[in-house]
Here is the input.
Amino acid sequence: MSDGEILFVSDLHLDRQQPQRTRLFIDFLETRAAQARVLFILGDLFEAWLGDDDPAEDFQPLFEALQRCASRCELHFMAGNRDFLVGEDLARRIGFDILPDPFLMTLGEHRLALMHGDLLCSDDTDYLKFRALVRDPAWRRDFLARPLEERRQIAEGLRERSQQAMSGKQMTIMDVNPKTVEQTMRELGVDTLIHGHTHRPGLHALPAGQRIVLGDWQVGLGPSYLSWTPNGFRLSDPRC
Ligand SMILES: [Mn+2]
Here is the structure.
């Protein structure tokens, strides 16, 4: 890849009930990201996405800002655990492509793996079972064939169950497993791993290289993003 700034964000959790958060991201797209050459959105752009046939009128200003962004720079999206139903229709509508998880790339002297991060939380076996189920093409087809309102109810039920399950889990279970991180980096042959999902932004030096964790977005805190220029990586998060 040639020179020019590359930005990485994740875990915006945009929600129709929280227009301020969407506004914050639109501002970021129109200001900070306007000069970037590439923008990666590494999952959980939406708090929930139930299918591309949802007209999502409330998100129209967001879609327009993303379209403007995609017309200026390369825009890439990777699904998170909350928006894994984003499909080719929305991708075409906005102008991004959908990356596999993990996605490998080279940046300067670095060999990178980009991930959402949920696969690294390997102590949470219940969640990984659920993930395998909902990522199955047959499950996806069946779910998307149901009326939108029914999908909403199913998703609501799933979310309640997941919140109950989470409240009984230790915090360490919901963080990455260090052995899984080491093993993943070794197997993929990378020196840099970039992911979100855990909402624990930070830079971690490891024997295999470095792990960079993107932060979640909160209205009171402001934008959280990672920037790469030929001078290196810079994590910009109000908590770091
Ligand atoms: Mn997530």
